[in-house]
Amino acid sequence: MARKLSGTIIIATHNAGKLREMRELLAPFGIEATSAGERGLPVPDETGHMFSENAAIKAHAAAQATGLPALSDDSGLCVAALDCAPGLFSADWAVNKDFAPAMEKVERELQKRGATAPEQRRAYFVSALVVAWPDGHEEIFEGRVHGAVIWPPRGEKGFGYDPMFVPDGSARSFGEMSAQEKHGIDWLAAPDNALSHRARAFVALARACLEPR
Amino acid sequence: MARKLSGTIIIATHNAGKLREMRELLAPFGIEATSAGERGLPVPDETGHMFSENAAIKAHAAAQATGLPALSDDSGLCVAALDCAPGLFSADWAVNKDFAPAMEKVERELQKRGATAPEQRRAYFVSALVVAWPDGHEEIFEGRVHGAVIWPPRGEKGFGYDPMFVPDGSARSFGEMSAQEKHGIDWLAAPDNALSHRARAFVALARACLEPR
Q1: A72 belongs to a structural domain
Q2: How far is A51 from chain B (nearest CA, A)?
């Protein structure tokens, strides 16, 4: 039985795009949320070898620093032909938070391997969510969305690698979708609508730890 | 047109198991090979985000240090449900070069995710081979073998994660196979026989850079 979340929490991120999405996903629940960035908390070293490990590092650091439950997301783009790169290093491939060179590097590596056919361009986004409490308890949830990487990138919405990722079943990239489309219409009542990796991880989190207000 | 390899080369590894396999795979070609370990070369920092990047770091370091062409392998086990972990960190999960705790960690992470059904235990081994010359030229080759991870591990042969990996089409783990079975009978003349990730990468290397003596 997972521990329930209520009252005020810390969202353990310094990433504005991620914070915006997580606030929207938390909106249906009576949760007050400030972020690690807004609270001026230091950015912990992400030394884990899995998304869930890095999410746990961030959530526990924020919970210890504030005495409040903390929610973190560690996420990335896994390109099959690149053995899950950029993966854990998805943010590191950006230059001064600009993901245009990061997307160019993904495409360059695919070209090196002659990966031009659609079946050679399979990829997925993954989100690991960790809720950590000040007493050290934690709950872990994961979500994935499979699709393909495209070139050139399309759309100005979202953040990170969104413009170069087209989820299966869609003709549009995440960069061409509103946050509501990525999260899914009424995703809480209709969890099958949850499209993005983060929304899918939130479905699991909501079932275990949250109650609609 | 790839550059050909001949004469004396350095095998840029400090891993005895890998060195043994690479010497066997090089045996059909008139190549003399010493290793970075035998030459007392330092172990370079593997700071890359892809297997091919880490292989390139090792090969260029050895080529620069010795003035000879250098061949390196960077390889690892990618478990799908773990988003390619241990992946780049495959060797790091060992404790004092003992892979028993590394295999236990893989199994523990799969158990955490309830990954007990065969389709949740898909994995592959990948090998990236890089040949680097002292003038900075490089050639890159990759090989993969898909299969599943098993528990408990089986067999005492091979090295690393071999005992917990069963390649597709086989009932036995890599730990239960001789090097000759992993490499494939007469793999040079019958490249479809190449079974292991490393043997498959060697097929590509041999076609491009080597000539049977």
Answers
A1: yes
A2: 8
pLDDT of A211 reads 84
Distance CA A195, CA A183 (A): 6
Considering only CB atoms, which chain A residues are within 8 Å of B89?
49
Residue B160 lies in a domain: yes
Q: Is residue B2 part of a domain?
A: no
Residues of B in contact with A87 (CB under 8 A): 49, 83-84, 87
Based on the structure, what is the number of domains in chain A?
A: 1
Contact B104, B88 (CB under 8 A): no
The model's pTM is: 0.94
A→B contacts (Cβ < 8 Å), by residue, are 49-51, 76, 78, 82-87, 89, 92-93, 109, 112-113, 126, 140, 142
Domain that holds residue A73: 8-209
Predicted pLDDT of residue A213: 72
Q: What is the pLDDT of residue A17?
A: 86
Does any domain span residue B3?
Answer: no
Q: Rg of chain B over CA atoms, in angstroms?
A: 17
CATH of the domain at B203: 3.90.950.10
Residue B115's pLDDT is: 93
Q: Residue A82 and residue B50: Cβ atoms within 8 Å?
A: yes
Of residues B212 and A44, which shows the higher confidence score? A44
- Taking the C-alpha atoms of residue A9 and residue A1, their distance in angstroms, rounded to an integer, is 20
Q: How far is A39 from chain B (nearest CA, A)?
A: 31
Question: Would you call the peptide bond into B86 cis, given omega within 30 degrees of 0 as the criterion?
Answer: yes
Judge if ipTM > 0.90. Answer: yes
Give the residue from B152, B147, B175 showing the smallest Cα distance to B103. Answer: B152
Look up A74 and say whether it is catalytic: yes
pLDDT per residue as tens digits for the range A24-68:
899 889 898 999 999 999 999 999 999 999 999 999 999 999 999
Whether B212 shows a pLDDT value over 80: the answer reads: no
Average pLDDT over residues B29-50: 94
Shortest CA distance to B22 belongs to which of B205, B167, B207, B163? B205
